[in-house]
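Troubleshooting entry. Yesterday's outputs looked truncated, so today I'm pasting the complete records for two proteins to confirm everything comes through intact. If either block looks cut off, that's the bug. Protein one:
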Amino acid sequence: MGIVVALAALLGGIVLGERMGPTPASAPLLLGAVLFVSALAWSGRTRLFVAAVALVLLGIATMGRALHGAAHHGVSPGPLDTTGTLATDAEGERFTVEALVRLDAPKRTLVVRARGDDAYRLRVLAAGDRVRLQGDVLPLGRSRFDEYFRWRHAVAVVDGAHVAAATAPSNSVYAAANRFRALAARGTRTLDTERRALLAGFLFGDTRAIPDDVADDYRDAGLSHLLAVSGANVAFMLALIGPLLRRLPLGARSALALLTIVTFAAVTRFEPSVLRASALAAVSVLSALSGRPVARLRALILACIALLLADPFLIHSLGFVLSAGASAGIVLFAGPIATRLRGPAPVRDALAVSLAAQVGVTPILLIAFDSVPLVTPLTNVLAAPAAAALGAFGLPVALASGIVPALGPVLHPVNAVLLWWVTAVAHAGAGVDIDLDRQALAMVVFVGGLATLAARAVRVAQTR
């Protein structure tokens, strides 16, 4: 219960800090840090109270400082000729692409919009690449996507950007990540274009090349989360190096596991859902190293607290919130739901996880979109086994085929069948145009509550 109060206190402080607006916030930051450390000297409810106050102050301070940095960024409107590092891969329409670039000086992030031939030059680059940019700096707010970029720490737009020069990443983690992605991409050449794009989505969350109609089917069927990296992807990556990890002593094993987590986060471009999954995996690794295993809910909340302290803007990331909500739903409800279901254990467990995740994300989806597809639990149950197999089988096959191209035609037909099945489920689910809105959900909860009370009353009467 205490860890839940801690998260609530931090969230309250972040929201309050946003309402207070930009401020250096040195005083609440210092006071919050002192109180947080001093809470260790207390016990019981006093410790919880002091820690909660500290986290409120830290939330106010971190959000205030983040807003202050965005408001006083030091990037002047007008012509720009500077160097920086691509923070994301470029994406967009055929003749217009966008990417985030972290400048060398000042240390700020800009949205780079390129058109025509410059769009082609930018599109072939990857996150981590060093670039020299030329263009005109404009304030945010001219595009409907600028609010999204603002919460990714962008402070201005470089419109009509020209990539004057580009070099490979100077950061070794990004360099390793890009080589890893290139090897996997090379290993999928025997697949057709659509299935190559889908496999990139399943493995790395890279949905840029997926056809719009296919992406729409996944979204309308409630399966778009399969194309975003989750904790399962991180677990599969750690399992891939598991034989090596088991041969190392505990300290070296933990260090290699953490390095793998960071590298895989770079491979998947540090997307918010990736950050949540990676932070949770890191908490688990560190707790094992310390000899004090942490319960799953506590580990999830600790990961969220650490990420929000590092980047309070994550509260505006739908991907992060949905990822945390789904994880919380699985941790809290998958077990109880599974015990109440009947049937074969694999089907029962898959349905329980799907329903639990849906419970966790439904309130968020209703707030964000006013409705959720009613067919989602069924499509997830049908797609889950194939999606899990893709996660476990797809990456090793892609890497092996990248090293030995002759393996591709032999092994990738399995991936092709799995991708066909999930896509067929998505297409069929998208055809079921029945959504659950807020009023319908309230009715379901009301009727479900009445049914539960009636069932309990019957059981009590029978015992008498």
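Protein two, checking that the full record survives here as well:
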Amino acid sequence: MTLEEIVSFVHELDEKCPEGSDVFNTAIMLLAALEVGADPDAVAEFTGLSLEFIMTRAARLEKAEVWKDGKTYAEWADEEVGIIAFWLDVCIAEDYLKRVAEEE
């Protein structure tokens, strides 16, 4: 996907989310990582978002194990819960939610 396609897709996912808002940009960041890998430098270059913005969110995603070893681990493709899982991961990146690791 191109950046323009990603922006359009985020608009389709939530037409009320204002373009340029932190939540909108985080959604773009997460989708861009599917194209270029979960690498803050590559995502910043691809999206034009600041590296500081991405690094802050990347740290949260890495702690929650959404981003691990340069890959995104998510259930976004699941037909039943994919969109919900995506927005929950956006919320984790925005520090609205925390994911607690399961105890073994």
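Both blocks look complete. Sanity check on protein two: The chain has a mean pLDDT of 94.
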